[in-house]
Structure formats: structure tokens, C-alpha cells
Specification:
heterodimer; A: 433 residues; three-stranded antiparallel beta sheet; two-stranded antiparallel ribbon; 66% helix; B: alpha+beta; Beta-lactamase; six-stranded mixed beta sheet; five-stranded antiparallel beta sheet
Chain lengths: 433, 609
């Protein structure tokens, strides 16, 4: 306890202010979304804004408590925390309550807690601890495998809870690994895979006829890829190694294209396939799978440039948008504050992410840096999927918008995630390496 | 590590690019694209049409004739309908499942966004039950409508009925929308715009469950419904009902007018129907029954049945003769039955006695003098000149022309003119001798009962009339259309009416008069009988009259179809009506009972011959 004079010494005010602003925006948005004339008191805990006020108060307490810890506590106890988390995740699989199809809640009376939310910071701590270890090189296969296991175990446990959205969040650690030396080709490969997946989905709905031969979309795509591969191989024919890569890439691509059907029909749930189809415009279903996104776009779009004004949002106020205080909270902001409001919010988030990267880069401790990147990546991934879904750029995946969406578990977990980093940053001077 | 720290730039760029893509997308959705604003309004705005209550109708003394009863139309907006328990819903509204499907598809085909009527005119009683559960079915809501009710069950032909507008009218008149009600006949039709009021539109915000959440823009764009005007008719409900009673089991009509104003006091067409039969959903069931009834209860004889006026027309002939100067009030003609048939009576030595005794040959002579005034040496040409002038004069009595009354569908009747006979017989091929039937109101001439009542008003007024009408007063307006205040002079000097009126008094009151049955002890009644020859059956009994003789308060025309001579049936009915109106009671109950008990329905003996 070297800084007993003040637990607030050396903390990064910019991050804290951004955090407080986002939490405040979240609360007034929830207030606007669920406001009704019968319950006007802001402290009315029978309404969500009343409850959220309690969560916020608790979150501030949690933040202060974290700041009171010794900075060395987190690297030291990273593994025990991680193990405790894994046990909780197993526990929830065995004893948890099911809410909306996901068995991811502990219910104690009327109070419900979602352990998967807390998996994020625990995994981040464990990953940071492992990668900051002595003589650990990202280039080593062993490092890659162990890092994957650390990320994979909680991800699989959460997938078993049937919470696809929270599982996908673990993909965000790829940014961390990249920063620590994972080949950029992996990122490109991921991008390429996603691209092929989408193209293949779009093409397989049609048949194409050439010179009397009927080709399926998949077949045509493979022929096109083969032509490209042949062209590249011809240009680079003298470099034997390149030639091999081209052949490998082609085989990989062809395999991927043919596995799309399998993944789509056997791995994904029907409603998930449907959401992807709707997103890509393959299916139109404005009353079913497309309803949420359609209503969300209507709410956001009707906000116009300057918005309808606080509490004037008809679409959200009258419940046209589903999950308007949780997953679709962005609609309330888009409708009531318009493009201006959306602009400010996106700038606040991007500002926060960049600030965290900046802070991470100034750490002398590798643990702190890795953890910082984990924080930025997790928050960014939530931002990417949540807002992307609300504006019809991402499939509907139910994950909260950090600090803004209604819910105690998510607010607390994001608060813990962020404030551990703020604490680590505050003590960066005390750490040698 | 140096090259690895470059990767922070890559990651920062990824973050920035995503933020940038989001902003472009948001700018497109929120600022450039208008589609979502429209959809947003579609979501939350619902136009609730405020149907105004249709105006009430009272009689001249403030007796309520028509009022409104609430009913509910069940509306549907197909787009807002969510998955629901269709069977439970069908049970709730009492509809067959197949009907539900048909109606729902029909509504969907019309529009997914616009409301259409799903089930019409649910009574307040049934609606009370439905209302409790309706919120469970988003997309469905009720709209208040009103149905007409007729507490006195009379005057159906005057009041008319309302029904849904047809597509034809919707195309022509932008005010009306599918499902609106409009007057189809009678007063409901002629004063449609007064009675209907003005529809209001309220724009309300609704939530996803279709519950009202308040008004749009604080009601700035709403329009208030304006209730239809209450109107007072000139009809005397008591007299009208009495007339209907008298005409029970008879075919024909009664029209009574207040001569000083042209106000129609009663307008009876028999057989009549109960106006409550043509209300709301029952129309579909009852209308075909009524319209296929052989007795034609829907046919308003008082306005639409054209009969020859018979001997009542002699009053007109005498007046024209005197005005033309071809006779004087003291001109006498012998009763030469070889010219035209007559009954036995003393010789008519002047106009007065010719009216009293209704001498046919007398009018044969009068009419010959009217037509043949030696304006040409050719008999044919002379007849032509005479008929042209005569026809014009007759039309001034409101006969053979559109009277311009405020009841729709009135017939003009027919007064023959030169063109008609030229076409009928050929030019120059007809003369007085061809058309002399007109002299006693028979032949090609036709008038409707309202015109006959107007004729008796002209006689009562000694030379003028006001267009007969049924609108007495509009609530808060207190004027009636100015056309009903125009005095129409018939172009006969007042002095010539004296012998006619004296004669008409003697018809009723003196021995040898043709309508002794019309006498009322306490009142001086003037009348004239008539018998309309009917080629299809028994002649029609006609009587026109007014009373009292001085300062007349009521002028009347009575037609009883297939009842023979005018003095037998039409005259006593007219006298009962006048007595009822003037004294409020009937002294001669024997006369009254004779009429009430008479059944002249099955007297159609000569049909088909």
C-alpha cells in the first residue's frame, strides 16, 4: 500500500471521465426507454431505471474497492481467479437457471447473476499472466496452444450454456495475440475466411448457366478461385515456395466453401442461420427474424439529424423495438438524439478504446500491457457487434453495449475489467518490468 | 519488439475504421434515407375517425322522429395483427372460422397498413363483452358508429333511410370513404349534408400492442367531428300517424299542406313500412323482401305515382276559362251527355254550380272554348294554338312540372302539349275533338298526389302557392332555403277563385254536392271529388279539399286506388284528416270507424284484362 494517501493518485482521469459519461448516457437512455407516466420517481426499483441506479451505485463501489487493492494483487492472483471463474462456469451449467434459452444465470431470490460476464476479465488476467511469463514467445507453437487453451476453455463452457453471443466475445483476444506477435497472416486468414463464407452464402442460392452447363454457386466460386490460383501460380512460377502456398490456399478455400453448407445447417442453430441470411439479404422476413433489425433501423432512422428529443422517441417508448433497454439500447439514443447523438457516442467509444491502447503502450509491465489490450479488444468487440447489429451491419447477436445496456452483471463486469486496468496503470511507476 | 509495437497502429486503425463505417452507415440511415421516418409514422400513428352523430329529426311540434343508437364497427389493421388464438377470437365476436379467414384476407388485400372494417355494427350489448378482451388482439380495434332509430315507426317514406356509400359515389365525392353512411332516400338523402355533420380525424400514437398512448403533436393536426344538425320537419307527427292509420289496408296516398306556407303537414303513402326495418345490418335481410313485395311498400305513391286528376281538374279548367275571358262566372252550358257521359243532375247555370255538380258536358264546352278561340280558320291550327297556351297555363299551377320540393325522387306528372300530340297523332292530324278527354282531367294527363295537394293549396290561397316542402327549421340556423319563401303566382286573377271556392263549399255542404261525406259540422270545408279512370282496374278515388273556407289552415289531396268514386272513400278520409288537424279530435266516430275498418286491398278486379 504505497499510495495510502489517496487511492485516486495517478489514475487516468480521461478514462474515468469517459467511463462516467458512458454510464450516465446509459442510465438516461434506459430511463427514456422504459419511462412511463405511472412510475415517475427515478428511484422506483420496480422499473429498470431505478434498478440500474442501484447497479451503478454498486459499480462505483466496486470501482473504488478495486482501486484500493494493491496493483500486484492482480498478476499474483490471476490464475486463482481464473480457476475460480472456471469452477463457477461449471457450477452454473449444473445448477444455473435458464433465462431466454441460455443456462447462464445464478438466481438468488430475485437477484440474478450471470457468471459468463465475469469470465472476460478473469480470462484477460490469465492470458496476460501467461503471456507475460519469462521466455514466452508468441511465435512458439507451445505458446499458441496454451494461449488458445486459456481462451478456449471458458469459451466452450459458455457455449455449453447456449450463450453464443458471449462465446464470440472470446474471439476478440485475437487482437491481443496479434499485438504480442501472432502473425498478421492469421488476422488476414480470418478476414479471408469470413469473406469466403459470406460470398459462398450469397452465391449458393443461385445456379449459373454457361454454354449450356449448369453450375451451382459453389462450383462457380471454386472455378473462379482455381483460375485466380492458376494465374498467381503462373506469375510466380519460378518461386517454388510461392507455388506451394497458392496450392495450399486453394485447397483450403475449396474445403471451406464446401464446409459452409455443413456449418450452416449443422453447427449453427436455425435461428442463427436465419439471422445471417436476413442480414445478407438472402431472406426477407420483416415479421420474424428480421423484425428486430427492421424495427431497430426504423427507430434509429426516424431520429433524423438532430433526434426527436429526450423522451420523445415513439418507437422505443411504445415498445416497437425489442430488448430496448438491453441489447437494442442504441436505438433509444439513435431515435432521441439523432445522428448528432450517435456521432458523439461513437466518438466517445473510439476515444475510450484509443485511450486504453495509449495507456497500454506506456506500461512498463508486459502483464499490464497485455491486460490493457485485452480490455480494449473486449470492449471493442461488444461495441462492434452491438451497434453493428442495431444498424443492420452485423447479425443479431445478443451482447450488451458496454456501460450503457441495462443489467447489473454486465455493468459490474465491464467496471471490474476497466478499473483493474486503471489500477494497473496508476501503479505503472512502481513496476519495473 | 520494435516492429511489434507498430501493431498498435494497425489495431488503432481497425478501431477507427469500424467507427468510421458506423458513422457513414448512421448518416445514411438517419439523415439521407427518409424511408425510416415514414415507417416510424406508420408504426405509431393511427388515424381514428371520429364519426359525428347524425342529426336528429323532429316534427313541427318537437316530437322526436329519428334518433341515433350507438353501434361498433370492429376494425382491423392487418399489418399489426400478431399471431393469435384465432378460434378464441372467432368465438368472442361470434364469427365462423372460415368467415374470419375470408374477411381477414379481404382486409389484407385492401391494405396491410390501412384499417378496414372487419365486422360491422356490433350492438352495444355485444360490444361490452368484446371490449374486455380486445386488447389481447393487436391490430383489432373498435370504432363507434351510430344507427338510426325511429321511435314512432311512421313516416318512413318521408324520412327515407341511410346505407353505405357505393363505390360510384366514393369516386365522385372525395368526402366519402368506404363504409360511410349516406342518405339513400327521403329527408336523409335531400338533407344529407346537414344531417351527416363533418367527420373528424384524430391522430393518436399507439404502442406495439396497439394501445393508445396519447395524441400526435398535442392534437394540432386533429380535426373535430361536427355533429349533424338537428332539423325540424313541417310534418305533424300526430296527423301523419293518423293518416297512416286511415290508409291501412288501402293503397293510395294523402298529402296535406299548410296553404299559407307550403309546409307539408302529412305525406302518407300506403302501404307503408316500418322504417326500423331498414337499419344497419338488417337492411340486407329486409330490403329484398320489401322491394319484391307485390304491394310495393317502398314506392312512395305521394310523389311517384302519376294518375289522371279526374274531375278535380275542372277547377283548373274553369279558372283558365274565366281568365281567358271565354266564359264568365255566370256562363251556363247544358248537360249534353252525347258529348261526354254524365250523371243526372240539374243544369249547371254558372261556374259555381258546375263545380258543385261536377257536370262533365259543361267542361267539355269550357275546354272547347279555351282551345278554339278562332285564332286560325283551320280547326287543327286553332286547336294547336289553344293547346299551347293552355298547356303553359296549366303548368303554372305546378302540374306537369318539377315542383322543386325538398323530397327526392318526385315525378313531374304530365300535361300534354303540342309537341306530344304532334308526335302521337302527327302534325295537323289532331284537334279538340281528338283530345277532349282532357277537359274533365282524363286521358293523357297525369299528376302526382303532391301536385294535387298543391292545387288545393292554390285554391285555398286563391291564386298562389309556396313550393311544398318538409323542412321547417334547422337547429341554430333558423332559416329555410329561400326557394321555399318565393310566392308562385299561377296567373289567374283572385276574383275568379270566388265561384270555384263557393262551388267547392257546396260540393261538401249542400244537398246535391258530390262529397257530402266530407262535411265537418263545425268547420266550413271546400272540396272537389274526382275519379281517375284506370285502364288496369277499378278507378281511383280522388278528393282535394281545404278548410276552413276563410283563412284556410290545411289543404289536402287524397288518392285511394281502385276505390271508385271520389266521394265514397277519398272525401271522408280527407275530412277526417282535416278535422283531426284543426280540432285535434274526431266527432263523427261512425265515419271514422267506417274508414278504419275498410279493407280495399283486394279490389284489383280488372287486372289482366
Amino acid at each position: 500500500m504505497r499510495n495510502q494517501k489517496s487511492i485516486f493518485a495517478n489514475i487516468d482521469n480521461v478514462t474515468v471521465i469517459l467511463y462516467v459519461i458512458l454510464v450516465f448516457i446509459g442510465w438516461i437512455s434506459i430511463y427514456a426507454a422504459v419511462y412511463n407516466e405511472e412510475h415517475q420517481s427515478i428511484f422506483d426499483i420496480s422499473e429498470r431505471y431505478g434498478m440500474q441506479l442501484l447497479w451503478i451505485a454498486a459499480a462505483f463501489v466496486i470501482a473504488i474497492v478495486i482501486l484500493m487493492f494493491d496493483g500486484q494483487f492482480f498478476p499474483t492472483f490471476a490464475y486463482p481467479i481464473f480457476v475460480a471463474l472456471l469452477l463457477t462456469l461449471i457450477g452454473v451449467l449444473l445448477f444455473g437457471a435458464e433465462v431466454k434459452g441460455s443456462k447462464s444465470w445464478f438466481k438468488i431470490g430475485s437477484f440474478a447473476l450471470q457468471p459468463s460476464e465475469f469470465g472476460k476479465f478473469a480470462t484477460a488476467l490469465a492470458l496476460a499472466k501467461y503471456l507475460s511469463g519469462f521466455n514466452i514467445k508468441m511465435q512458439d507453437m507451445k505458446t499458441k496452444v496454451i494461449a488458445s487453451i486459456i481462451i478456449g476453455i471458458p469459451a466452450v463452457l459458455i457455449l455449453l450454456q447456449n450463450d453464443t453471443g458471449s462465446t464470440l466475445v472470446y474471439a476478440s483476444f485475437v487482437f491481443v495475440l496479434y499485438r504480442e506477435g501472432l502473425s498478421g497472416n492469421i488476422l488476414l486468414l480470418g478476414l479471408y475466411t469470413a469473406f469466403l463464407f459470406v460470398i459462398s452464402l450469397l452465391m449458393r442460392i443461385n445456379d449459373f448457366t454457361f454454354f449450356g452447363t449448369v453450375l451451382s454457386g459453389d462450383q462457380l466460386l471454386i472455378i473462379i478461385l482455381a483460375l485466380i490460383a492458376a494465374l498467381v501460380a503462373y506469375i510466380t512460377k519460378r518461386a517454388k515456395r510461392f507455388w506451394m502456398i497458392v496450392v495450399a490456399a486453394f485447397v483450403f478455400s475449396a474445403g471451406l466453401i464446401y464446409s459452409v453448407d455443413y456449418i450452416f445447417e449443422n453447427v449453427l442453430e436455425p435461428h442463427q442461420s436465419k439471422r445471417i441470411n436476413v442480414l445478407l439479404g438472402i431472406e426477407s422476413d420483416p415479421k420474424g427474424a428480421g423484425y428486430n433489425v427492421n424495427q431497430s433501423l426504423i427507430a434509429i432512422g426516424s431520429g433524423g439529424f438532430a433526434g426527436k428529443g429526450f423522451m420523445e422517441g415513439t418507437q422505443t417508448k411504445f415498445d416497437f423495438v425489442p430488448e430496448q433497454s438491453t441489447d437494442f439500447i442504441f436505438c433509444t439514443i439513435g431515435e432521441e438524439w439523432g445522428f448528432l447523438g450517435s456521432f458523439v457516442l461513437i466518438c466517445l467509444y473510439i476515444g475510450l478504446f484509443l485511450r486504453i491502447i495509449y495507456l497500454a503502450e506506456r506500461q512498463r509491465s508486459i502483464f499490464s500491457r497485455i491486460y490493457g489490450y485485452a480490455v480494449a479488444s473486449i470492449l471493442f468487440f461488444h461495441f462492434l457487434i452491438n451497434i453493428g447489429m442495431a444498424i443492420g451491419l452485423a447479425p443479431v447477436i445478443g451482447i450488451p453495449l458496454p456501460f450503457i445496456s441495462y443489467g447489473g452483471s454486465s455493468l459490474w463486469s465491464f467496471t471490474i475489467l476497466l478499473f483493474i486496468f486503471i489500477k494497473l496503470d496508476a501503479e505503472r511507476i512502481n513496476v519495473l518490468r | 519488439m520494435n516492429n511489434l509495437s507498430d501493431r498498435k497502429i494497425v489495431i488503432a486503425i481497425i478501431f477507427l475504421v469500424v467507427g468510421f463505417i458506423f458513422l457513414i452507415r448512421l448518416f445514411n440511415v438517419q439523415v439521407i434515407n427518409d424511408k425510416y421516418k415514414f415507417d416510424s409514422d406508420q408504426n405509431v400513428l393511427r388515424e381514428v375517425i371520429q364519426y359525428p352523430a347524425r342529426g336528429l329529426i323532429y316534427d313541427r311540434n318537437g316530437v322526436l322522429l329519428v334518433y341515433n343508437e350507438a353501434a361498433y364497427d370492429l376494425m382491423v389493421i392487418p399489418r399489426q395483427v400478431k399471431e393469435m388464438d384465432t378460434l378464441a377470437f372467432c368465438e368472442l365476436i361470434g364469427m365462423k372460422y372460415e368467415d374470419f379467414i375470408t374477411k381477414f384476407n379481404k382486409a389484407k388485400n385492401y391494405s396491410r397498413y390501412k384499417p378496414s372494417v372487419f365486422e360491422k355494427e356490433i350492438s352495444s350489448k355485444s360490444y361490452a363483452k368484446i371490449q374486455e378482451k380486445l386488447f389481447e388482439y393487436p391490430g383489432f380495434y373498435a370504432q363507434t358508429r351510430t344507427l338510426r332509430k325511429y321511435p314512432r315507426e311512421s313516416a318512413a317514406h318521408i324520412l327515407g333511410y341511410i346505407g353505405e356509400v357505393d363505390q360510384n359515389l366514393i369516386d365522385k365525392n372525395p368526402y366519402y370513404r368506404s363504409g360511410d353512411y349516406i342518405g339513400k332516400s327521403g329527408i336523409e338523402l335531400s338533407y344529407e349534408e346537414l344531417l351527416r355533420g363533418k367527420r373528424g380525424v384524430k391522430r393518436v400514437l399507439v404502442d406495439v400492442h396497439n394501445r393508445e398512448k396519447g395524441s400526435y403533436l398535442d392534437g394540432e393536426m386533429d380535426t373535430m367531428a361536427v355533429t349533424g344538425k338537428t332539423i325540424y320537419l313541417t310534418i305533424d307527427a300526430i296527423l301523419q300517424e293518423y293518416g297512416e292509420q286511415l290508409m291501412q289496408n288501402k293503397r293510395g296516398s294523402i298529402v296535406a299542406i299548410e296553404p299559407a306556407t307550403g309546409e307539408i303537414l302529412a305525406l302518407v303513402s300506403a302501404p307503408a313500412y316500418n322504417p326500423n326495418l331498414l337499419v344497419g345490418r338488417d337492411v340486407k335481410k329486409n330490403y329484398p323482401v320489401l322491394s319484391s313485395d307485390k304491394l310495393k311498400p317502398l314506392f312512395n305513391r305521394a310523389l311517384m305515382a302519376s294518375y289522371p286528376p279526374g274531375s278535380t281538374f275542372k277547377t283548373v279548367q274553369a279558372l283558365i276559362g274565366m281568365q281567358d275571358g271565354v266564359i264568365t262566372e255566370n256562363t251556363g252550358f247544358p248537360c249534353i251527355k252525347s258529348n261526354v257521359g254524365c250523371h243526372d243532375h240539374p243544369t249547371a247555370t254558372n261556374v259555381e254550380s258546375s263545380i258543385k255538380m261536377s257536370c262533365n258536358p259543361y267542361y267539355f264546352s269550357v275546354y272547347r272554348k279555351i282551345l278554339l278561340q278562332n285564332k286560325s280558320t283551320s280547326l287543327f291550327k286553332d286547336s294547336e294554338i289553344g293547346l299551347a297556351k293552355w298547356s303553359k297555363q296549366v303548368k303554372k299551377f305546378g302540374l306537369g312540372v318539377d315542383l322543386g320540393t325538398d323530397l327526392p325522387a318526385i315525378k313531374k306528372g304530365f300535361i300534354p302539349d303540342v309537341a306530344f300530340y304532334d308526335k302521337w297523332y302527327g302534325k295537323g292530324r289532331w284537334a279538340f275533338s281528338t283530345i277532349y278527354s282532357l277537359s274533365i282531367g282524363q286521358g293523357e294527363i297525369g299528376v302526382v298526389p303532391l301536385q294535387m295537394a298543391n292545387l288545393s293549396a292554390i285554391l285555398a290561397n286563391r291564386g298562389y302557392y309556396y313550393t311544398p316542402h318538409v323542412l321547417k327549421r334547422i337547429e341554430k340556423v333558423d332559416t329555410i332555403p329561400s326557394i321555399f319563401k318565393i310566392k308562385h303566382d299561377v296567373g289567374i286573377d283572385k276574383i275568379y277563385f270566388n265561384p270555384i271556392v263557393e262551388g267547392m263549399q257546396k260540393v261538401v255542404e249542400e244537398a246535391g254536392g258530390t262529397a257530402r261525406r266530407a262535411k265537418i259540422d263545425s268547420i266550413q270545408v271546400c272540396g272537389k271529388t274526382g275519379t281517375a279512370q284506370n285502364p288496369h282496374g277499378e278507378d281511383h278515388s280522388i278528393f282535394i279539399a281545404f278548410a276552413p273556407k276563410v283563412n284556410p289552415k290545411i289543404a289536402i289531396a287524397v288518392y285511394v286506388e281502385n276505390a271508385g268514386f271520389g266521394g265514397t272513400w277519398a272525401a271522408p278520409i280527407a275530412s277526417l284528416m282535416m278535422e283531426k288537424y284543426l280540432t285535434g279530435a274526431i266527432k263523427d266516430t261512425v265515419k271514422e270507424n267506417r274508414i278504419l275498418d275498410a279493407n280495399l286491398m283486394d279490389v284489383i278486379p280488372k287486372e289482366g284484362q
